[in-house]
């Protein structure tokens, strides 16, 4: 993939105030961070900037405070944990307005290689509107802007896009480079066979991904709730399974396109069904593709698992986005778990997990270490797979 954006290695860092947009949108439970992958992902860039003598000002959003200062969504726990991870004090610039005169004063007092963290950028209602005033305020505290928030690169907000209009040098960090390298190489120059596995609840979320990937892959594997729309479009009974009636024609079109492009389009041939959507529901395995009235498909069946496993083990590049079933319920986790294991088993393939629920599933089954790359951005990686240029990256300076 041709990557022509300036990076942190292309600029002079020493003594400069550097605003770094990170993705610190981490899950919190009672003030404790329950998954710190995104913090770990940000460390290489931060360490590089400290080493080179920059004055590092970090910023991020956390959750959806909708323009209000919500104490439970403060970034204070992130500052505390980052201080431990970096073994260096991360000064938390607590201010409900994010930027203020006193915050600016504290930034002016930063010495080379010191680090500060601004409060949650979404405490400001302007943030998600990509408004000019807040963008200028952010730009006013720095000489250089670094975007390293891959997870938010698909959003045009003040702290990802607006700010770049008012800073001379806007460049990308190591995490964005790494994400684009893995996702970009997989999609643009895959070692074949190239297989994409798509699952999750809805077809409508993945319409453009399916359409775009059909131009590139050798196999397209469909699982999860979205599979039943394809089965119904093929004339099978799906009982009470999730179906998007208004996407039946689209499903037919995609299967036709796959045939024209010589792409193997795999949909389930059997299922694990239940009579209710519940963690305690009794799991029943069907013999075939049809699902009888009163039942719903909650996971792919054992024959399907074998079929999908075979395609996975024969592949050299695999991109996975979306679980194969309701993996959160023990009785319906098998499809997702076995597919994750098959990816882990295929040592010759480049395996890329597209963030979100599939990343959660792979980590839940403790197979994260076995994958080539787990993306830190579910939405951003999906938009990348759709072939959309990510605004947070487009906005950065070209080399
Ligand atoms: P998504 O956010 O679209 O990736 O969807 C992920 C969600 O889809 C997970 O919470 C799964 O439990 C759910 N899911 C997967 N398979 C099914 C299914 N057969 N029926 C209903 N929900 C499903």
CATH class of the largest domain: Alpha Beta
* CATH architectural name of the largest domain: 3-Layer(aba) Sandwich
Shape: elongated
SS-based class = alpha/beta
Notes on the protein architecture:
- Helix 7 packs across helix 8.
- It contains 13 helices and 17 strands.
- It is of the alpha/beta class.
- Helix 11 (356-364) links the parallel strand 16 (350-353) and strand 17.
- The chain is 33% helix and 16% strand.
- It folds into 2 domains: 8-177, Rossmann fold (3-Layer(aba) Sandwich), CATH 3.40.50; 190-366, Rossmann fold (3-Layer(aba) Sandwich), CATH 3.40.50.
- The two termini are 15 Å apart.
- The mean pLDDT is 96.
- The strands form 4 sheets. The protein has a 6-stranded parallel beta sheet with strand order 5-6-4-1-7-8, sandwiched between helices. A 6-stranded parallel beta sheet has the order 11-10-9-15-16-17, sandwiched between helices. Strands 13-12-14 form a 3-stranded antiparallel beta sheet.
- Bound molecules: adenosine monophosphate.
- The site of adenosine monophosphate has 16 residues, from strand 14 and helix 11.
